[in-house]
């Protein structure tokens, strides 16, 4: 099979890296990777796999779980059954950071309920000077998180991972009063609410639902932020559009200032609106 000069150079480099890594059957693995990512050798098999994927999607299996990957803000993230698939909606956080708030040089940033690491990794791509830690507790999600961190390290994107329950206050003591920015996309769907089967049936329950009003974990994050943020530090939480008033009240009750709910119609879609509430710790 004939490859372009660029493809052949990539194949040669891949062979070298696989050998250095101690992979036991380099050529077999390399053939599989070439067939998957560069050029399909058997079109009949490709068509069969295509139709299998189509039928899975018709069964409302999330696309990311079918193909095993999702593009988020230009980052190719590995995902699969058992982890929440990051939605484009979360890019509202990065738009806010680019257009409205410049995180101080070298600041510590926490990405809570990190899942596959999309939000924290996308911040790190833009701001390599920041000290970013992605926090996740679920075993399966944490495996995807660490896998994405390790694979994107080859792009010089650096993020730390911390496996800890948000309710374990002592585990966060190293960050007390020292964090410049906390971002979070926690589960925020009320437990009795009916939603699309992609999320209701095929995502982990705890990555979607959070108490009777959907805000149990949001309340916990706001309390944690009061302890972790330094003076003038910011908290950014993603949530549903109908929850804006209640989330702002939770921010206010916790002593935050400059509170604002932002809706971005440009990255909203039929599955819901792109919404965050932001607030600053001034006292």
Name the descriptors:
N5-glutamine_MTase, 7-stranded mixed sheet, 9 strands, alpha/beta, DNA_methylase_N6_adenine_CS, 283 residues, Rossmann fold, transferase, 10 helices, two-stranded antiparallel sheet, 2 domains
Description:
The protein is an alpha/beta fold and 283 residues long. The chain folds into two domains: 5-59; 81-281, 3-Layer(aba) Sandwich (Rossmann fold), CATH 3.40.50. Helices cover 39% and strands 22% of the residues. The chain contains ten helices and nine strands. The strands form two sheets. Strands 5-4-3-6-7-9-8 form a seven-stranded mixed beta sheet, with helices on both faces. Strands 1-2 form a two-stranded antiparallel ribbon. Strand 1 (69-72) and strand 2 form a beta hairpin. The longest helix has 17 residues, at 5-21. The chain is globular. The model has no long low-confidence stretch (mean pLDDT 94).
What's the average pLDDT? Answer: 94
Continuous helix count? 10
CATH architecture of the largest domain: 3-Layer(aba) Sandwich
Give the percentage of residues in beta strands. 15-25%
Query: What's the main sheet like?
Result: 7 strands, mixed
Radius of gyration: 21 Å
Ranges where pLDDT stays below 50 over 5 or more residues in a row are none
What is the H-and-E element order? HHHHEEHEHEHEEHHEHEE
